[in-house]
Amino acid sequence: MSYKNISFKNTHRLLYISEKDWVIRMKVLSIRLPDWIIEMLDQLVEKGVFVSRSEALRFGARLVLKRYEKFIELNDEKERLKARLEVVQSEQELYER
Fold first, then answer.
1. Secondary structure (3-state) at 55
2. Residue-level pLDDT at 23
3. Is the pTM of this model over 0.85?
4. How far apart are CA 43 and CA 49, in angstroms?
5. DSSP per residue, the chain
6. Is the dihedral of CA 44, 49, 54, 56 positive or negative?
7. pLDDT digits (tens, 9 = 90+) for 14-73
8. How far apart are CA 83 and CA 67, in angstroms?
């Protein structure tokens, strides 16, 4: 897998290993998740969709960054509140499914 095309500003640091290999330097992040999310992540790993829970969560984090990167530079309070409302509404939609 090549990470050369990642376009998020300042969200990654690539370490060049060889012409074919790129490694992302990572830090450990401890999070709390409900049991049902962990169980679903485990099922995805079991089915081979992801190699590990960590890979699945990194993938999800990249999706969030891509979707909401337009809000990163917001300085206007009203715009930040609109962004927060969009996040809350999206989360509600997930729970309604």
1. helix
2. 58
3. no
4. 9
5. ---TT---TTS--EEE-SSS-EEE----------HHHHHHHHHHHHTTSSSSHHHHHHHHHHHHHHHHGGGTT---HHHHHHHHHHHHHHHHHHHH-
6. negative
7. 444 454 555 567 788 899 999 999 999 999 999 999 999 999 999 999 888 888 887 777
8. 11
Where are the chain's structural domains? 14-96
CA distances to 18, 23, 37 from 32, rounded to whole Å, are: 36, 26, 10
Residues in the chain: 97
- Please give the span between the terminal C-alpha atoms of the chain, in angstroms, as a whole number: 32
Radius of gyration of the chain (CA): 16
- The structure tokens 């729970």 sit at 95
Q: Which two tokens stand for residue 28?
A: 């450990």
